[in-house]
Amino acid sequence: MPHFFSNKRLIILLVSIIILVALIGFSMKKRESLTLPEQFLKDSAGLAQTIFYKPANTIAGFFENLAEMKQLYKENQMLKARLDEYAKLYVQYEEVKKTNQTLKAQLDKEEDLTDFKVREATVIGRSPDQWNQFIYINKGEKDGIKPKMAVISPQGFIGKVTNVSLFQSTVQLISDNDRTNRFSAIVQGERNIFGTIEGYDPKRQALLFKKIPVDAKIKKGQKVITSGLGDVFPPNLLIGEVIDIEPDEVGLTQTAYLKPSADLYDLDHVMVLEREMPAVDESLKEKEEE
Amino acid sequence: MKKIFLPFLIYLAFISESSLMQALLPQENNMEWQFIPRFSMVMILFIAMYLNSTYGLVYGLGFGLLTDLLYTDIIGVYLFSMAATAYITSVFSRYLFGNLIVTLLLSIVGVSILEFFVYGLNSLIGISNQMIDMFLYKRLLPTLILNGFFAILIYYPYVKQLNLLKDTLKEN
């Protein structure tokens, strides 16, 4: 086709490819904050999404209810069985809580590394192409949300806040395959085994838990939680359950496959956690004043 | 008023993509098929076919940039893919007569070109790690079906609007 590849068009094509590569290179490095026009775009889109999500959710919810109705009886039976278990656990929990409180009081320790502030948010949208796993929530800078805060659903850890504009923010799910989307995590057991969560395997529908030492023995069904190392995420948030273990390609480490405890596809209400840690310099200041 | 009507319409389709994904995904996941809404792209393809290639290119660039900024982390992938897709489709449409069947066919071809572009670029960067057979069967096929339905649904009212717009453009 002579129309398609005249000289001028070829040059335009080449130039646009160069611009494309430059743009991708520019945006691949992580930026901490958004520029003003970006914030404005995100806020206006967030507003439109808020209007859209209600009717969309209602319609989807209706079909979901129909599907759930079929399993209701079975589920009820199972839940009844679990109720006794719950009562037992609750008594134990109260006891442990009380002991913990008294012990803390004895130690004169008020602030804890595991304390965090919870903010509820509603999911108003989701990145439509499945390559990027982002969800959008209706709380932003004005509600005190900052980048890098941990986000959980009632079932467990789901991701972190990446971008914040005034009225809405973007959450990157743990299943996103971005290079920088990595979390330090531990396998719960007699001895804590450390590793990092690095991406998602769509074929097995499982998270990849890599960099586990070769000699570490992990069984299927063990729970994996956030480590809380690094001062970003609170520790002890449930991530998932080990379903399979394999040696690495090189054989120096092991890779485990995790079934995420939270349903990463069905998210309506999420909670954003802010870690409350006593800043070091503030406590020093107080002592000086004394 | 007339000038912002078309961008506004596409913007609505663009926003509805993310809402639809949020509402549709739980059911979709049970079937393990990925229906990806590309409504804004389909509407831009119609523009490229019924108005002219420059309009298609400009809208492709604009909404490509918007998609990059709002729905992804990396600027450039959709900017390039959507503009290129709109242009290629407009070149095809010069040789074909515009009726429902041809329009549907070209929209499907356009959406698959977009999917291939985005898949290729994302694989290059390392965002997607899906195998090609899974991509073709579990993602491309359902996506084409969904967007084909959308194209049929909007065909009559939307083409009428576009023809009206074309007449006013000619008058000016």
UniProtKB/TrEMBL annotation, chain A:
Assigned GO CC terms: plasma membrane
Sections of the chain in a coiled coil: 69-113
One of the GO BP terms on file: regulation of cell shape
Magnesium found in the keyword field: no
All copies of domain Rod shape-determining protein MreC beta-barrel core, residue ranges: 123-273
Domain of life: Bacteria
Keywords, ordered alphabetically: Cell shape, Coiled coil
NCBIfam families: mreC
PANTHER family assigned to the protein according to its UniProt record, in alphabetical order: CELL SHAPE-DETERMINING PROTEIN MREC (PTHR34138)
Summary of the function given for this chain in its UniProt record: Involved in formation and maintenance of cell shape.
Protein family membership: Belongs to the MreC family.
Identification of the protein by name: Cell shape-determining protein MreC
Organism, as annotated: Fictibacillus arsenicus
TrEMBL record, chain B:
Swiss-Prot/TrEMBL keywords: Cell membrane, Cell shape, Membrane, Transmembrane, Transmembrane helix
InterPro entries the record matches: Cell_shape_determining_MreD
Predominant localisation class: membrane
GO biological process: regulation of cell shape
Family that this chain belongs to: Belongs to the MreD family.
Protein's membrane topology: Multi-pass membrane protein
Subcellular location: Cell membrane
GO CC, alphabetical: plasma membrane
Sequence intervals crossing the membrane: 39-62, 69-89, 95-119, 140-158
Designated name of the protein: Rod shape-determining protein MreD
Any Pfam family hit: MreD
